[in-house]
Amino acid sequence: MSEATATSMDDTLLAKWMRFANSTIGSKMIMAVTGMGLWLFLVAHLAGNLTAFLGKDTFNHYAEALHANPPLLWAVRLALLVGFPLHIFTAIRCAQINRAARPVEYAFANKTPVNPAATTMILSGGVVLAFLGYHLAHFTWRLTGPMPEPFNPYDMLVKGFQQPLIAVFYIAAQILLAGHLAHGLYSMFQHLGLHGQRWTPGVKKFALVVGYGLCTAFSAVPLFVMLGVIK
Ligand code: HEM
User: Fold this and answer.
1) What is the domain extent for residue 60?
2) For position 215, what pLDDT does the model report?
């Protein structure tokens, strides 16, 4: 294949992808698929974190097993490296599409109570991103926070959360994340067609329970270290 043909093929593929990503339906599908992937990651990550309740050996075994399988670790990292930015850029694009669809403010104020999580998705998403930056610097790159000598992941976790400021920061970030996840899940189901009188009330409750439930469970490790139960 000549270089010119390959380039023009890339151009059309890229152009097609850009058209899809920029369309309303395409951006909603990208949000749903990347959102679902991020959910799967969070559930798996939570299951790993909760092994801290089973003691030092179990948690360290889990961390060791994670790093003993580089292809799996890097497949997950790659999916996150692609999925996270795609989720963020598409969220911004969706907000732009929504704003462009309604350039003039409504003549009458809408009296329906608004859910604060719904109106602050971009803001709470930004806070989650800032939390993630700190979190990676702490546990993955080990650039900040107290480190045990000799190193092991369990003691790093415990020493970190024995600092009340770090533990409170993690718990506060989970509360914000909960609102973001609950609204994200609700909107994902709406886009998948589960709306209307029959579905909306149940979907709303389900999203709240799952979003806040997941983040309560994430908060359990820093909270129980602070209380001296995990030590
Ligand atoms: C209290 C809550 C959390 C705790 C205790 C926690 C704990 C940890 C630990 C110990 C690691 C390092 C694993 C290792 O390399 O051995 C890690 C990595 C990571 N965590 Fe968390 N985490 C929490 C919440 C979150 C949340 C809410 C997110 C996403 C928004 C997240 C995203 C990540 C990512 C992306 C990594 C890097 C995985 C990799 O090495 O590629 N974590 N976490």
Assistant:
1) 7-226
2) 96
